[in-house]
Batch of 2 targets.
Target 1
Amino acid sequence: MARIVQRDITNKYIPYKLDILVKETILSFDCYIKRHGDYVIIIEAGTYISKALLEKIDGNKAVYVVKTDSEKVNKYRIDHEIIDLPGEKTLSEKEVVKAALDLSETLCNVIGTFKERLSLVYTTTSNLMQTIDNVDEKLPLDALHACVIQLVKCVNLEMNMIPMLFNIIPDEYTTHYHSTNVAFFAVILANSIHLSEEEIIDIGFAGLLHDIGKIRIAPTILLKPTRLDEEEYKSIKYHPEFGYEILKDNGITNQRILNGVRFHHERLDGSGYPKGLRGKLIPKYARVLGMCDAFDALTTKRTFRNNYSSYEALLVMKQEMVFQFDKDYINTFIQLLRQH
Ligand SMILES: [Fe+2]
Ligand SMILES: [Fe+2]
């Protein structure tokens, strides 16, 4: 039975993704969830983590652990071999933000191949995106901007990073990887269609945040391994508007970025959402993002289907989605893939 813990300002709680809990283990620390501003204990130390228990709490964005228990969490993770890749979840949120803010300086000190630099920009960006899932809709705008600037510098050095990018992008599908991928593809596309530097930066930024509204949607729906039913699909369709609200609440006033996020699911033939806009009524940033979003969705492995190769994905788009996406953008992508 959940019990509410009085708010105690001396306690600091650290958010963790639900996947820190390992099935068929004994938990060595208390786990909390946030409810109406209070921390509610949901699993006490010493509890056996059964499959049924995991299913019961799967719907929460995160579990929280008192900061003074973080050593216990680390030991539990090591004991159960859920040790992350260096530079991933092992960094605290503060460290991840700092790594992003310091990215320019770090890259100056790195003597490596272009691919290594690109990989560092990718990892730093996706780590940063991962922190957003767990913080209460507060966006690390300066750190995000720092990542986008370095991404744009990469595309200035190597116009076509797509083949290299495919070697860097992890197989696993998560919103933070997907958002990073869309930002990278969008910057490459925006550069190839000769948008201004300012627009390329804006599009990269909007790409990172295009699905931010999903933090308001239950993970049980987002991570559902089978196809969504009508009600679930309806709730997913709120995410562009939620994203628009979250961006505005964070003080973003650039209308092109706001509308890029808000309308990234609109389609040229009017079949998209939330407004069913048609053709050039769909803002340019939204059309670029929509194309890159669909491309990443097709090329990423999902639990309910296999992924397409990048070239197959473009053929699908060219043949079956030709009324939904700008032909010029699809052709530009095809050219980029043909060059290698
Ligand atoms: Fe989306
Ligand atoms: Fe998306």
Target 2
Amino acid sequence: MKAAIPGFDSLPVVCGISDRHIGHDDFLKSLGVIKARLARMQQVHAAKVVKVGARTDLSREIAEADAAITDVRGIALSVRTADCLPVLFYDPENEAIGAAHAGWRGTRERICPGVVGMMVSAFGTDPSKLVVGFGPALRQCCYEVNSEFLVHFPGSVVKMAHKHYFDMVGENAGQLISAGVSSKNIYDCGICTSCMNGDFFSYRREKDAAGRMLTVIMLK
Ligand SMILES: [Zn+2]
């Protein structure tokens, strides 16, 4: 099974999330994405957003970036994850897209509002029209954290039976709404990588043995 984000299947974009049963090359082939036109980010758990243009060098990873935006047709933006949250953006008015890798550090650095802000300045995006999608991630059910997380995310840490759990997806949704995104335009695949470890990679469950899911979006 491949993961799908409801709401995104009707958009004029190519988009998908690989699972543990398909290799990245086969997955890209199934989407019709040409590897030479795949933008890959170094992903350093920070919040740098990069605008990808027709002349961007795609032969190597984009240094230090954890998010990318583009309005170039046929360039696919990609995010690799195993527990961190892949976030996709689509601006229907200006025909532009974005992709972000949001772990807890990137979430703390407000990477999603960073993408929204960059799309506003680069493409004139109206945040209230943006469509946003969440892929598979470690969810609150399985994301036990220490109480330090209360300092960073006071509204998104739940205490149950003397343990703390982080709602990373809820935190990102809240940040997006505070950046002007409409809650009705936020779609979530609802998959927890740990609960669904048979189909998806989970770094917390598998440690260094964990592979990575690839999440891709491209303007048709
Ligand atoms: Zn879970």
